[in-house]
Amino acid sequence: MRPPRPRPTRPSPAESVLSILTAAHSMTVVSDGLDPVEVHRLDGTPAMGHIHLHEPSDAGHARTDTRIPVRLEFTDIAPTPVRDRMRARVTVTGLLSAPYSTEAADSTCMEFGQAVLDDHRGRTFVTLDALEQTDPDPIATSEASMLTHLMDDHGELVPLLLRLVRPQPDKGMRRVLPLAMDRYGVTLRLEYPRTHRDVRLPFPKPVARLTQAGPQIHALLAAARRASHHNQLLA
Predict the structure, then answer these.
(1) Residue 172 burial (CB < 10 Å; 0-12/13-18/19+)?
(2) What are the helix and strand counts (H, E) for the chain?
(3) What is the pTM of this model?
(4) DSSP annotation string for 69-82
(5) Are 181 and 138 in contact (CB under 8 A)?
(6) For each of the chain's 235 residues, which pLDDT tens digit applies?
(7) How far is CA 78 from the centre of its chain?
(8) What domain range includes position 64?
């Protein structure tokens, strides 16, 4: 009998890409021979809201192909005031049948080429199949508001989570801030005078619904209060 697979404690590259595409309110559309188009959605809808990705197909296209190569660029920025706020970049390439327009009323179909994720783990290529087989993270579209709420209204609780960090932070740490949150846990950024260190604190259970996020955060805080080590770095 095969041993059970270990439970994931962080998003896969496909999950990270899908979360960024789902939550991003801005993107840059770069087409060959045309000026870049900056898309900013101020009404709360995602920038990818009216672009539909589909499998590439050469059927029905003449040898003199008029489809337009296009590149969608996304930058994932931390919502909290950490040092070096850029968390990741995502680039999606493909083909459009007509120049992209922000005024288009109908959904824009884009033949998928590839998605590239650049983050702290390096560069990863993600297929359309992987994206389609990935469930959306229920926290993705609420992450920014949840992290800013934690900072603005419960900032005194963040250092408490240091009791769960292994290995313990080095002396000389200046501050600790929440960097990211996903269905699997919270990432903290520990800032030092000339560098920083990111640490993951997995939730006891992955979040399946947004309403489960609060109880999982409280579970981490409860575990920190029970921890025997009392961190004095911020005293």
Answers:
(1) exposed
(2) 4, 10
(3) 0.88
(4) EEEEEEEEE-SS--
(5) no
(6) 666 677 888 999 999 999 999 999 999 999 987 889 899 876 667 888 778 899 987 655 544 568 899 999 999 999 999 999 999 999 999 999 888 887 776 778 999 999 999 999 999 999 999 999 999 999 999 999 999 999 999 999 999 999 999 998 988 999 999 999 999 999 999 999 999 999 999 999 999 999 999 999 999 999 999 986 554 444 4
(7) 9
(8) 13-132
| Structure-token pair, residue 97 | 């049948």
Structure tokens that stand for 196 in this block? 């920083």
Residue that terminates a domain, selected from 75, 101, 132: 132
Q: Among all chains, which residue has been given the structure tokens 């959306």? A: 136
- Looking at the structure, do residues 158 and 117 belong to the same domain, yes or no? no
The two tokens of residue 130 are 């992987």
Tokens encoding 18: 């899908």
Distance between CA atoms of residues 212 and 142, nearest Å = 13
Q: Report CA torsion sign: 190, 8, 45, 88.
A: positive
CATH number at residue 192: 3.20.180.10
- Tally of domains within the chain: 2
With contact defined as beta carbons under 8 Å apart, do 73 and 130 qualify? Answer: no
Q: CA-to-CA distance for 211 and 20, rounded, in angstroms?
A: 20
